[in-house]
Inverse folding.
């Protein structure tokens, strides 16, 4: 039986929620990225790493890019709908091409509660709305743009336990 760790970096809780579900399904150790020591990574056969998406970065992913596990699966969590979002620039920004060819990456939809956002994230979201989304003519807005505007300032939760099935299935093949 393979030894598996699910490591997560979660600021507002949705990544942690997905990580807990994945850990439960796989019977894996669940570890918060803030307490994981790089030396621990090598003791696992498979590492599933989850991080929230913030300004094109995957929160905490440097842990597994600098200290590569034997087998790595990554999942991201963001507001955008994975079915309609192109993540290629995010992947290029966060992984070197060699590592990207060796790993499997999944994208999950999270949630947001604007009342819980820290100051930096509140400012970033306000700037995104004012400087990007509001400047796009209504007839040129994408589904993602419209969804952003519809949820701006609100509390929304798009988490879905069934969305972890492909990650769990893939992890079981390693």
């Amino acid at each position: 039986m393979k030894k598996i760790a699910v490591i997560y970096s979660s600021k507002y809780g949705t990544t942690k929620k997905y990580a807990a579900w994945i850990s439960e399904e796989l019977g894996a150790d669940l570890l918060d990225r803030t307490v994981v020591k790089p030396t621990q990574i090598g003791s696992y056969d498979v590492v599933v790493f989850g991080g929230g998406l913030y300004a094109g970065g995957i929160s905490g992913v440097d842990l597994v890019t600098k200290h590569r596990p034997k087998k790595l699966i990554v999942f991201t969590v963001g507001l955008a709908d994975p079915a309609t979002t192109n993540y290629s620039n995010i992947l290029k920004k966060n992984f070197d091409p060699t590592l990207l060819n060796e790993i499997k990456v999944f994208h999950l939809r999270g949630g947001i509660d604007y009342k819980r956002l820290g100051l930096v994230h509140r400012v970033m979201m306000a700037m995104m709305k004012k400087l990007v989304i509001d400047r796009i003519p209504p007839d040129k807005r994408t589904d993602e743009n419209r969804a952003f505007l519809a949820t701006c300032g609100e509390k929304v939760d798009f988490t879905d336990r069934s969305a972890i099935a492909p990650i769990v299935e893939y992890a079981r093949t390693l």
Notes: Residues 113-155 form one domain.
